[in-house]
TrEMBL record:
Species: Tegillarca granosa
Family, similarity comment: Belongs to the glycosyl hydrolase 79 family.
UniProt superkingdom: Eukaryota
Any Pfam family the entry gives: Glyco_hydro_79n
Protein name according to UniProt: Heparanase
InterPro entries: GH (IPR017853), Glyco_hydro_79 (IPR005199)
Keywords assigned: Signal
């Protein structure tokens, strides 16, 4: 018995000597922004249509994993979208850089999306041009008419992908693109009667932290690199406000860790969660309406791996959707010691999602990360005696930051033997202080917060 007590005491001393004490104050004088249930969306790169396997996308496991994330937008687009042609006749095929999507493949795509309950956004080919440089809308009309005849109800349409990097198409000027967007709007209003034709447009931009070839492991943990998202959001909001109708939504229409299909061995591992969780926190705090993750499946940065099983970011995304509610609250973080600089501790606060959990109204959820090797002891001084619910995500094997597996409060996360998603709403009940180990991230729910703004 004495030996057991000694071990506990030594552990306690080690935690206190190696940790930095931080006080978090939650301000409750109002929400600084608000997100919807479809704040997180996903993409599937049009390039992946070259390898579409219907038995894979219609499998019980794939549908289950997708449905768990609903409600959600899915955007099918990317560079290949501007080299893709729809045809009701002939077979699906690829030719050089071009991709032909035939009617049976389009039916399979829509069948998968209908099974998931997601809302479909499709990126149309913008490089189909007449001799005078204007957009050739005929193929788009053919696709829209066919979709209408089949009863497919798409949530939205995009025209073109990243026109700033078009190669060999300098004739597509900003003014020409503006005319093309008007043409697309007129097409939709002609064919899609009812509220769909009057849906609010969204201004979108894409963001990556850099190119995969230039990134190393520590870059994924660098607060200065994480902060490069902030000016990009501010620029997108600035130009949307100046040149778009009042109230126009701003979407992060395609985003992940690094471009170039992600960094092998990093973008699909535990370490990628720091960038993803921080991006969600900053985007919600700064008023972005939807964040589209590149991507659901494919590349090195997919939520699912090539076999259709969850990467660590899938579990992080699902936990976010379960715990994080719509209203974004302000917070003050007061550093008490100097072992960790403030930028290495990044936390965000929302009302708790009481629609997908049993938490009562008034609860709040704090989520974030410790980007330093030193443990952080987090004190919520307004709730010093309150019961706190910790959801700590950690690598579940010896690979550490580059682990492809993740645990929740020490329990390895994987699809169950019965083929189901495990129950993630299994918190560790703690009290102040909450210890966030070095290089870890997670969520803390305060059930008894009783915040009026969260009712």
């Amino acid at each position: 018995m004495r030996r057991f007590l000694l071990i506990i005491l030594v552990f306690s001393v080690c935690v206190q000597s190696l940790s930095t004490n931080v006080v978090v104050n939650i301000q409750s004088d109002g929400a600084i922004s608000e997100i919807s249930g479809q704040f997180i969306g996903v993409t599937i790169d049009t390039f992946e249509l070259r390898y579409w396997k219907d038995e894979f996308f219609r499998s019980k496991r794939m549908i289950m994993l997708a449905r768990a994330l609903s409600p959600m937008y899915i955007r099918m687009g990317g560079t290949t979208a501007d080299y893709t042609i729809f045809s009701t006749k002939g077979v699906y095929h690829t030719e050089r850089n071009n991709l032909k999507v035939n009617a049976p493949l389009w039916d399979k795509i829509n069948g998968f999306i209908q099974d998931t309950g997601w809302d479909f956004i499709y990126d149309l080919n913008s490089l189909l041009r007449f001799g005078n440089g204007s957009w050739d809308m005929n193929n788009a009309v053919q696709l829209i008419k066919y979709s209408q005849s089949k009863g497919y109800k798409l949530a939205g349409w995009e025209l073109g992908n990243e026109p700033n990097v078009y190669k060999g198409h300098d004739v597509v000027s900003p003014s020409q693109l503006s005319e093309d967007y008007v043409k697309l709007r007129n097409i939709l209003q002609h064919f899609l009667k009812g509220p769909g034709s009057n849906a609010i447009n969204a201004s979108t931009f894409h963001h990556y932290y850099g190119y995969e070839g230039n990134f190393n492991l520590l870059d994924f943990l660098n607060p200065k690199i994480l902060d490069n998202l902030i000016p990009e959001i501010n620029i997108a909001k600035k130009y949307t406000k100046e040149y778009c109708p009042e109230g126009m939504q701003v979407w992060l229409g395609e985003t992940s860790s690094v471009w170039g299909e992600g960094k092998p061995g990093y973008s699909d591992r535990y370490v990628a969660g720091f960038m993803w969780l921080d991006k969600l926190g900053l985007s919600a705090q700064l008023g972005i309406d939807t964040v589209m993750r590149q991507d659901f499946y494919g590349g090195q940065y997919g939520l699912l791996n090539s076999d259709g099983f969850p990467n660590p970011d899938y579990w992080l995304t699902l936990l976010y959707k379960l715990l994080v509610g719509s209203k974004v609250l302000n917070k003050n973080m007061i550093e008490m010691k100097t072992k960790i600089t403030p930028e290495h501790l990044r936390f965000y606060t929302h009302c708790t999602n009481n629609k997908r959990t049993n938490y009562t109204k008034g609860s709040i959820t704090v989520y974030g990360m410790n980007l330093n090797a030193v443990d952080a002891a987090i004190y919520f001084d307004q709730y010093i005696e309150s019961e706190l619910h910790l959801y700590l995500l950690e690598p579940s094997d010896n690979y550490g930051l580059t682990s492809g597996n993740v645990s929740l409060n020490g329990k390895h996360l994987e699809i169950t033997e019965n083929g189901n998603i495990p129950n993630l709403l299994t918190p560790k009940v703690v009290r102040n202080p909450v210890i966030i180990p070095g290089f870890r991230f997670g969520f803390v729910v305060i059930p008894s917060a009783n915040k009026n703004i969260c009712y």
